[in-house]
Amino acid sequence: MEEKYFEISAEDLKKFVDSMIKDNFEIIAPMDRDGDTFYGKIGKFDDANLDILLPKMSYKEYLLPKTETLFEYSFSGVDIDIKDGIESVEGKNRKRVIFGGRPCDAAAGPIMEKVFNWGYKDDFFNERFKNLTIVSIACEKPDDYCFCAEMQLSPESSHGSDLLLKKTGDKYSAVVVNDKGLELIASYLNLFKEIAKDEFPPDKDWKKIFEIEKAKSFLDKNFKHNYFQDRFLSCIGCGICTYTCPTCHCFDIQDEGDMKKGKRIRNWDSCQFAIFTLHTSGHNPRNTQGDRYRQRLMHKFKIYSEKFDKYLCVGCGRCSRNCPQDINIKEVVKDLTELASA
Ligand code: SF4
Ligand code: SF4
Predict the structure, then answer these.
(1) Which residue has the least CA distance to atom 4 on ligand 1?
(2) How many domains, in total, are found in the chain?
(3) pLDDT score for 88
């Protein structure tokens, strides 16, 4: 579908969201909780905090929950009963909208979709992704941790959004990117005014401070470079960087139960945990935090892009903002580009 352009006043945007809630949409938006801002289900437009640059966590958990049951079983001694977890996937057949997220978070969905459909098709991920409509708001003032422009995106990118809003004074300009976006606004078109493409505000010229391809060229040739061991000595392996990241997707599968009944569950995991690669023999091929953070860099900026032609990072800066040891991935990647030229 060709993109369509609209305008909507701030007052009508509120009506749009409140009407969707009335029509039984589940609206997930940034909202204040426990002294911070997280994505959560809002009961009315005013519950949302649209001023925050980025909520603490991404909305990854609406595609890949922190923990989920893949199946449950019970055995009577004669019959075995298996209940497939896909039947109770929340979001299945439900009208769920992520409203007011940022372009970096929206771009993460299609990146994750690649790995969840590589060889094995993950019905759990796909079911949730299919039933999610993404309405993002372009950023006006990225902070010093952001580097989406370096990651082939921009604070105004519509990639991964179904509908992207840009604030212009007391109104919003809207680009409907695809059929999903058009379907969403179809019942509320009286609130939107269609405009021509050239009336839609053009993207600013966002400056880049490094070229990501240079970082990749360093990673291609320097697996054993001292930089990794020296730079990440302070990393405590807490995994916060991976849990807050919108594109990190490692998980572990555990069986809980006994012969009579039990379940198989999938939980978030992290390549930053020492036990992630610990062998039963006691050998650990990634024995230091330097090895583990190097793996994170290799996966994001080399391996994934070679396999899927996309970097596994959208430059949201969450891992840096939330790192208790102040390890800043933007500075790290910049270091790699400089080492590549040294
Ligand atoms: S959040 Fe920081 S300290 Fe924790 S594992 Fe990641 S880089 Fe290391
Ligand atoms: S690696 Fe860091 S900057 Fe990149 S997407 Fe993940 S949290 Fe954001």
Answers:
(1) 238
(2) 1
(3) 84
